[in-house]
Amino acid sequence: MNRPSSIVLDSFAVHSFSYSAANTIITSINYCKFLCKSNSRNLLPTMAKLELRELGNTGLKLSTVGFGASPLGNVFGNVTEKDAIETVREAFNLGINFFDTSPYYGDTLSETMLGKCLEAVGIPRDQFIVSTKCGRYGTGFDFSAERITKSIDESLSRLKLDYVDILQCHDIEFGDLDQIVKETIPALQKLKEQGKIRFIGITGLPMEVFSYVLDRVPVGSVDVVLSYCHYSINDTALEDMLPYFKSKGVGVISASPLAMGLLTERGPPEWHPASPELKSACKAAAAHCKEKGENISKLSLQFSLSNKEISSVLVGMNSVQQVVENVAAAVELTAAGIDKDILQEVETILQPVKNQSWPSGIQKS
Fold this sequence. Notes:
two-stranded antiparallel sheet, 8-stranded parallel β-barrel, globular, alpha/beta
């Protein structure tokens, strides 16, 4: 999950609605503009609250922008505890209520730091939603019932919580999917009965791993799927699966709207597994946006937020400025919609590589 580049809010159009509604939305956007410029840390906007969406059949209502906490594990550079706390506080202030982490991020540091932040900010437990993961660790993968059972206790201790709202099997394509079905998910159901977790999820990159598991467990055994890099301007493979997930009663979270850095002006890290063709097309799209006075990161986030069948879009954040920029992009989307002209131009550039992905997990011959 990746941070967007600096987001520009200079141009937007307000469409046909009442004068009072227009003033309300314009006030919200201008407030976010002010926050971006001033980098204010402790102001609580009354107009710029994020939309909440229901997550499948869980009854949970997630903020459309979710807080990806992997950067709190120093995955993308060092983050001080003070900065982390201020970032999480600003996220709450601007309406973000969903926080996602994993023991794998920063080799447990992300969970530890998020736990300190939640404790320091002091928000009542029923006002935020925490998701963490199991099965993937700094030392490798282990989806056994024994490890999963131990893992949740370790996570709860680091997070300073009595329970997590969602516990997800992390990147299941790296495990034995039959073990996930027969051993891991039953172990998670026991944790659910014990009150340590409220809902069960699975995550992964290849779309087929989701249907493999969901077709082999009773409906209701899995509550959530987290898919990444499959609902962005260059890749909308997730969209075809949404009716299937709905038929299974499963809520959907999407992550990496910037395709792990492909859809940024800076470009992806050297290790990015995308093909040279895909990297080149995304670079051209970013350059086109810049030439038109648009920021491809903002456009990409808004595109991902536009599908209301997706409950929340996770974005990695490690600074107040990033929080403000992401919320401002969401508020602008609500007020004025996405710039359809520039979007169409970018989609045309990316059409030759549409839905092109890369291998992940255990490759079967």
